[in-house]
Design goal:
The chain is α/β, with parallel strands linked by helices. It folds into four domains: 194 residues, Sandwich (Immunoglobulin-like); 118 residues, Rossmann fold (3-Layer(aba) Sandwich), CATH 3.40.50.10390; 203 residues, 3-Layer(aba) Sandwich (Rossmann fold); 38 residues, no CATH class. 23% of the residues lie in helices and 25% in strands. It contains 14 helices and 32 strands. The protein has a six-stranded mixed β-sheet, sandwiched between helices. Strands 1, 6, 10 and 11 form a four-stranded antiparallel β-sheet that branches. Strands 4-5-9-8 form a four-stranded antiparallel β-sheet. A hairpin with a 2-residue loop joins strand 23 and strand 24. The N and C termini lie far apart (51 Å). The N terminus is likely disordered.
Length: 633
């Protein structure tokens, strides 16, 4: 019987196979070609660059495809291709390694890589391959395969540039074990996100994970979409927040670290907490996890939720994605260095995680009160303001196009506050005045350090803000602004913003180490990995229906996860995904318009049983009834 069972399992694994055939089309209008100093920079909308230093810097596009749960992609084959040659000749510059946006006081000078003489003398199109299999990942049970395409090819010896107008390829997959989630809410919530990520959204429902009850030996039964992990000192404070989430339709719960450490195994405390989160995800249907405490392990008394550091070749960096990406153990090679390229981290979030930077009851009360005020009753007049303070990074780096890209996403009735150093509108006082007046969303650019933005806003300025309850969220590409592990006895800039009493922000999305940009052959700026992540965060909030803070960050990381490939060691997309962390509540929905008072009418008595309809009508002064209102009973 044992031999027969093994044989049947092998037959099932081998017999599960299939293909996905797709045609990718590219238009000349999608190409952005601009010349500077006799060098042509080639960009393709929606893609990134092929970063092989010394070889031509041409675009690459990685298409994400949903495939059956548990399947493993094994091969990609190009079935047909149609190319057009662009008129004229081009001098495509050599790709350069991604470059850190210099930390304040520690500026690096880029060492530019010269063109590879052999490559640039060749008459063969570059790159040689048109398509390759770039790996796969899993997001809450949805299996996503990555196919890298090279739709732009360059012949260096002749200066010829070719564009693939059509590429038809077939992806083959096989094997695997079907995945399951705990609740239909998980399947639907993450399914909507996956639909926005993949090139075959029509297949998302077909390839969705099963819903299966997964009883845990450690967890009591329950349905908690929102979970706070904190210590026993602050648990009753965070219970206020969990109760509010439950009242609005997101069932919440608080679990203490003492209970987790007593009931879960693991190499160390972070692994025990992560094992609990995996259990909550698969048993309770948890989708949002609040890490209710600081992780300042170098500071006595402020190590509530310990930090896991990730390392992908550029040093260790605090990385709360460790608590969100639940596949594997992040230490495949078992060397106790986490998140290395050999550790097979897929970069997708299975739950959305944020961190409350608190270490005592008073700090927790302030944090919870600010979140509740923002979610329940924010004051008027600040929500529809986008703050865009922008300092010069270096002389050849033009920062404004990224900010203008974000400004184009805001609705027509928003106010975009452009404070640009290159336009002589940026000053410390201007940013202070803007923040004190209230800013709903903001994106800050400049040289950063643990204590803020070098030229225009520091932790001391955050501590003096008097914007009251007009508290929004700030995102930044600056270096080290969220380096909570590097300020012994104190707090980093992001923590100062969020923990300011009587003002500041409700959340900050900032880097724990370097932000990274990209350069062309002449040392001038081209779109880089930190810019891609930050702009995608705002696209998630303003364009793609990802309003929750943690959800928007998880969406941005998922969009660029297919590009975080170990093959390209000089492309720092993986580092930037690790690096960008949320200081704030991951479930908080970000307002994009002024709240409106709602009126609810319903019968006073509910008849239980026999599927008797219970009618509820929600209206406002302008909408009767309100479409798609959520009613929690």
């Amino acid at each position: 019987m044992r031999r027969l069972t093994v044989l049947l399992a092998l037959l099932a694994a081998r017999g599960f196979a299939g293909t996905e055939t797709r045609t990718a089309e590219f238009d000349r209008d999608d190409l952005v070609i601009y010349s500077r100093g006799g060098i042509d920079d080639i960009e393709l909308r929606g893609g990134a660059a092929l970063v092989q230093p010394g070889s031509p810097r041409v675009p690459r596009v990685v298409e994400a495809l949903v495939i059956p749960t548990g399947a493993v992609p094994v091969r990609v084959e190009v079935l047909s291709e149609e190319w057009t040659t662009l008129p004229g000749t081009y001098k495509v510059g050599a790709a350069q390694p991604d470059f850190p946006l210099p930390q304040a006081g520690r500026t690096r000078t880029p060492v530019l890589v010269e063109p590879d003489a052999d490559v640039y003398a060749s008459e063969d199109p570059y790159p040689a391959a048109v398509a390759r299999l770039a790996g796969f990942g899993t997001m809450a049970g949805y299996r996503i395969a990555h196919v890298e395409l090279h739709p732009v090819r360059y012949v260096p010896a002749t200066g010829e540039l070719r564009l693939a107008t059509r590429l038809t390829y077939r992806l083959e997959y096989a094997g695997g074990m079907p995945a399951a989630v705990a609740t239909d809410a998980q399947r639907q919530t993450f399914g909507r996100t996956v639909m926005s990520l993949v090139r075959n959204p029509e297949d998302v429902k077909k390839h969705a994970p099963r819903v299966r009850a997964n009883a845990s030996l450690s967890l009591p039964a329950g349905n908690y979409e929102y979970v706070v992990v904190t210590d026993s000192v602050m648990d009753t404070v965070f219970q206020r927040l969990a109760d509010w989430k439950t009242q609005k339709g997101v069932p919440g719960n608080v679990v203490t670290t003492d209970w987790i450490y007593a009931n879960y195994s693991g190499y160390d405390q972070p692994e025990k907490i992560r094992n609990f989160i995996k259990d909550a995800y698969s048993t309770w249907g948890t989708m949002y996890v609040m890490l209710g405490g600081q992780g300042d392990y170098v500071t006595s008394g402020q190590n509530i939720i310990p930090t896991r550091k990730a390392n992908c070749g550029e040093g260790d960096e605090p990385c709360d994605l460790y608590y969100a990406g639940l596949d594997g153990n992040w230490d495949f090679n078992n060397n106790r260095t986490y998140g290395q390229l050999a550790d097979s981290v897929d970069m997708y979030s299975d739950v959305y995680v944020g961190r409350a930077p608190v270490y005592d009851v008073a700090a927790a009360q302030n944090f919870v009160s600010k979140v509740l005020k923002y979610e329940q009753d924010p004051p008027a007049g600040f929500i529809k303001k986008m703050g865009l303070p922008t300092a010069i990074l270096w002389s050849t780096y033009e920062e404004r196009p990224m900010q203008e890209s974000i400004a184009r996403m805001t609705p027509p009735d928003w106010s975009d506050q452009r404070l640009y150093e290159r336009s002589n509108t940026l000053s410390r006082q201007a940013v202070i005045d803007s923040m004190n007046a209230g800013v709903g969303l903001g994106h800050w650019v400049g040289h950063g350090f643990e204590g803020g933005l070098l030229t225009y806003f520091h932790s001391d300025d955050a501590d003096a803000l008097v914007n009251g309850d007009k508290t929004g969220i700030v995102v930044s590409i600056a270096c080290f602004c969220a380096a909570w592990d590097r300020v012994p006895g104190g707090d980093c800039f992001a923590e100062h913003l969020v923990m300011r009493v009587g003002g500041g922000c409700i959340a900050a999305v900032m880097n724990t180490r370097y932000g990274w940009g990209a350069l062309n052959q002449q040392g001038q700026d081209v779109p880089g990995p930190s810019e891609r992540l930050d702009t995608t965060f705002f696209a998630g909030v303003l364009q793609y229906g990802m309003p929750h803070t943690g959800q928007a960050l998880g969406y941005a990381k998922a969009c660029w996860a297919p590009y975080a490939d170990s093959l390209y060691q000089y492309d720092m997309q993986r580092f930037c995904i690790y690096d960008l962390n949320l200081i704030g509540d991951p479930e908080t929905p970000l307002w994009t318009d002024e709240p409106t008072a709602l009126s609810v009418s319903h019968p006073g008595v509910i008849n239980i049983g026999n599927n008797i309809p219970y009618s509820v009508t929600v209206t406002t002064a302008f909408d009767a009834p309100v479409e798609s209102a959520m009613v929690y009973l």
